[in-house]
Every structure is written in structure tokens, then in C-alpha cells.
Design a protein that fits this description.
The protein is α/β, with parallel strands linked by helices and 473 residues long. The protein folds into 2 domains: 183 residues, Rossmann fold (3-Layer(aba) Sandwich); 273 residues, Ribokinase (UDP-N-acetylmuramoyl-L-alanine:D-glutamate ligase). It has 15 helices and 17 strands. The protein is elongated and about 75 Å long.
């Protein structure tokens, strides 16, 4: 209230949504009332969204979603449209010659793969070559996870009720739902373990105090770099500054000092011992320990390399550091579950997460929420899985999803920028899961501010961070 924007929005699973419906006064008799409101809204929105359409085919399943579809068909007829109803349980497969198809085959309770007859109907819907309006969620998408185990409808518009579901925002389901309309049908309440991180989350960031200094504004220690990858350290350091950290120190192999001095002007640089490949080893541990006393967060891994000695250094540092740490890039390679001395945030993309879990990246892409939860549980660390739907999962299983990004973020160095923002927010005292989610929001909002959205490089994103943060506080 008072003009404040929400930091979070609930994302419901099918079980959580069912609990909301069952709490509605008069349940189960009241379901007919809810169905009437829902189906009428679908019919009216379909006509409004496609005003030139005259012929509609409504494909109905046997459950409550099909009931919504039958009500939608009546609303369309009342609006003067020509309507054909295809009921899946009758075995009918002739869709006619519609301008628009209404998909009311499956609802939020669906999971797994459709049976052969339903799968064939979904494929026929997709092959019709006309816009599809899905009721509640595109049929074939698991509303609780976003997973797709078989054929799924490609919707142009999805009309859902009361609140968004997990499958609307988590891939691959998010890419099947098209434009999303949320309709109020009178439901209230409900608890969820998955929430959408909104721009209002950035209002939780501590503001600088007049009595403060550069260390009190957030001091970040960055450890990484190897030959050919000095830019990664520079991007992390710049992003930490742009995300309002007051002080940044970078620890790099001795041979990288000249290029980093030239490209990261504001940061303090400390050269550390290196091996014959120019990578950090455990001999750097005393230097890092010395610098920890003036830092509030550690960013570990950008461009650090993958030698056996470097991996041993990463493992030992995480076992000893007193700082909350964000671990990214090469530091994730070969990382083993350990007893971290301090909170840890892991920030893998799907390929890195697949290696951590001993699976392939295709499996991770198909089971994003489950993969992030498995990683968070196995490593006892907050896990940030990057993507169009960046997912942040705590070891407890609670999840935050961010959808603020743009395709422009698919560029080299973008992940390093995100690491720097996470580190800055950790240094400002945010709890790890909140720091990770807020960083994903700031990162995505910064990308949105870039014009044009062509030829974007990671440095452009970093430079937009101050505007993204200040506009949403």
C-alpha cells in the first residue's frame, strides 16, 4: 500500500491452487459458480483479442477445464460467433475450419505425457495454423513445474484464473503459453513455495548513509582470472561498483596485473602466485585470507581456469572463507559438495548445472525447477539457474523466479555482470536467496533499458545498472 510496489508475486502449483479453490465458500457446490465466471471470461477475452474471428472451435477435455470450455462456448455463441465444440472423450477429432481454437483439453492438474488420443488432438490443434486460446494453461504443460513430457499446445493467448501458475513462467512451459491474461474470479488467499521476484524487491536494498564510508557501502572481494580471461574479472568488478558497492578488491594471477590495471581503474588489485599455466593455486590462500577482513562478500570464479591446482584452491577457499560467496564460471567446474564455512550462492547456466548434477544439459532444460532444487539440496547452497526464467532456489526448496531479462542478455560476459551484482548485494547485507533474486531483477531491468536491443555487450548492461536500481527503489 502507500504506493509501494510488491517485491513478490505468488506462483501456484496445482496442489496449492486446489487448496485455494477448496477454501472458497460453499465448496464443492460453488465450483459451478467459479466455472461460470472462468468460462465467460475466456469467451469474452477471446472475442476481444481476436475481433475479426467469426468461427471458433472449442476443444474440451473431461475435467473442470473442459467445463470451463463449454461455458466459454456459450459465451462465444452469445456474442454472435459460430462455435463448434469438440469433446475429447467422445473421440471426435474434426476441428472444422475455425479462425480461432479454444484449448480446454487439460487444466492445471495435468502432469506427465498425454495419452495417444489426446496427443494426436494436440498435434492437430497445433497444425491448424490458427491462433489458440488456452484455458488456464496450454494443454500438455505441467502447471506445477513448467515441464513438457509430450506434445503441448502452442497458445497465442492463455487465460488463467486468480494468479499465475509456475508453468506459466518456468521454461519450457513459458514458451507455450503466449500472452497471459490473469482473471479475477473471486478466489482469495493461498500459500505458495514458489514466488515471482518483482522489481519492488530492489526497494529492500540498503541505501547509503550520510555517516557511512566506502567500506560500509559494501566491500567486495573478487578472486579469479587466468590468461585470456582477464576480462571476466574486470566485468565482475565493474558490475559490483555499478550495483552500488563502495569498494572492490580483485585478486588475480601475477601475470594479469597489467591488463587488469588498464581495464578496471577503480578497483584495488592484488597479484597472487600462479602456476605454470598462469592460474591461481593454493599459495594464494594467505593473501585472500588477509584481504577478507575488509570485505563483506566474495565473488569467486570469473575466468579462474580449470587446472587441478586451481580446483583445489577453490575447494579450500570455500571451506575456509568467512565471507558469503557467489561462485560462478570456472569455479563451478568439478565443484564437489562440501561443508561451506559461510553461505554460498552458485550461479550456473544449464550446461554448468548439468555437470554439477552428472546429467546432460537437455535434461536440465526440460526440468529446470527440479534441477535447481536438486543442486540446492545436494550442495547446501542457494542455486541461481540462469535463463529467460532465472530460478533461485534455497536449500529448503523455496524458489524465486525472475522473468525480467531480455534476449539481449545472451551475450558473452553477461553472467559475469550478474555475478558482480550478486556479490554487491551480498556485501550490502541481503540474505543470499534475496541477494540472488534481486540481482537477477536488476540485471534484467538494466538490459531492458538498453536501446536498441541489438549489438548489446555485457558492458552496456553493467553501465545501465545504476538506472535500473534507482528507478525501482
Amino acid at each position: 500500500m502507500n504506493g509501494e510496489r510488491p517485491a513478490f508475486e505468488p506462483l501456484f502449483s496445482s496442489v496449492e491452487m486446489r487448496a485455494v479453490e477448496e477454501a472458497y465458500p460453499g465448496y464443492p457446490d460453488s465450483m459451478r459458480e467459479l466455472m461460470l465466471r472462468a468460462g465467460t471470461a475466456v469467451g469474452e477475452l477471446a472475442m476481444r483479442r481476436f475481433p475479426d474471428a467469426k468461427r471458433f472451435t472449442v476443444v474440451c477435455g473431461g475435467g473442470s477445464n473442459g467445463g470451463d470450455g463449454l461455458v466459454a462456448a456459450e459465451a462465444l455463441r452469445f456474442g454472435g460467433q459460430e462455435v463448434r465444440v469438440v469433446e475429447a472423450k467422445s473421440g471426435e477429432k474434426e476441428l472444422g475450419n475455425p479462425d480461432v481454437i479454444v484449448d480446454a483439453l487439460f487444466g492445471t492438474g495435468f502432469s506427465g505425457a498425454p495419452r495417444d488420443d489426446a496427443a494426436a488432438l494436440i498435434e492437430q490443434i497445433n497444425a491448424a495454423g490458427v491462433p489458440v486460446v488456452s484455458v488456464d494453461i496450454a494443454s500438455g504443460v505441467d502447471a506445477s513445474t513448467g515441464e513438457i513430457a509430450g506434445p503441448a499446445v502452442n497458445a497465442a493467448l492463455t487465460v488463467t484464473f486468480y494468479a499465475r501458475k509456475i508453468g506459466h513462467v518456468v521454461a519450457p512451459g513459458r514458451f507455450r503459453c503466449g500472452e497471459l491474461e490473469v482473471v479475477d474470479i473471486g478466489l482469495t488467499g493461498g500459500e505458495t513455495v514458489c514466488r515471482l521476484a518483482r522489481p519492488g524487491l530492489l526497494a529492500l536494498l540498503p541505501r547509503r548513509k550520510e555517516s557511512g564510508n566506502k567500506f560500509m557501502s559494501g566491500s567486495v572481494l573478487v578472486v579469479g582470472g587466468s590468461p585470456g580471461l582477464s576480462g571476466a574479472v574486470c566485468m565482475v568488478g565493474e558490475a559490483a561498483f555499478r550495483a552500488d558497492a563502495g569498494y572492490v578488491t580483485v585478486v588475480i594471477p601475477r601475470s594479469l596485473l597489467p591488463p587488469v590495471e588498464l581495464n578496471l581503474i577503480e578497483a584495488v588489485k592484488r597479484a597472487a602466485p600462479e602456476d605454470e599455466n598462469g592460474q591461481l593455486t593454493s599459495e594464494a590462500l594467505p593473501l585472500v585470507a588477509e584481504l577478507e577482513s575488509r570485505a563483506q562478500a566474495l565473488a569467486l570464479g570469473p575466468g579462474i581456469g580449470r587446472s587441478d591446482e586451481t580446483r583445489a584452491f577453490v575447494r579450500k577457499l570455500l571451506e575456509r572463507t568467512t565471507l558469503p560467496a557467489v561462485v560462478d564460471a570456472d569455479a563451478l567446474f568439478g565443484l564437489e559438495p562440501g561443508k561451506w564455512a559461510s553461505p554460498v550462492v552458485l550461479t550456473p547456466h544449464s550446461g554448468e548445472l548439468a555437470r554439477l548434477l552428472g546429467k546432460d544439459s537437455a535434461w536440465v532444460n526440460e526440468h529446470r525447477l527440479a534441477a535447481a532444487r536438486e543442486c540446492a539440496d545436494r550442495f547446501a547452497a542457494v542455486t541461481l539457474l540462469k535463463g529467460a526464467d532465472t530460478i533461485v532456489v534455497s536449500p529448503s526448496g523455496e524458489a524465486l523466479v525472475c522473468e525480467e531479462g531480455t534476449p539481449a542478455l545472451a551475450t558473452a560476459g553477461s553472467g559475469d555482470v550478474l555475478t558482480g551484482v550478486v556479490a554487491a548485494f551480498l556485501a550490502k547485507g541481503l540474505e543470499p536467496a534475496l541477494a540472488a533474486a534481486a540481482a537477477a531483477v536488476a540485471h534484467g531491468r538494466a538490459a531492458q533499458l538498453i536501446e536498441p536491443q541489438v549489438g548489446v555487450v555485457a558492458g552496456d548492461v553493467a553501465r545501465m545498472l545504476p538506472q535500473a536500481i534507482s528507478r525501482n527503489r
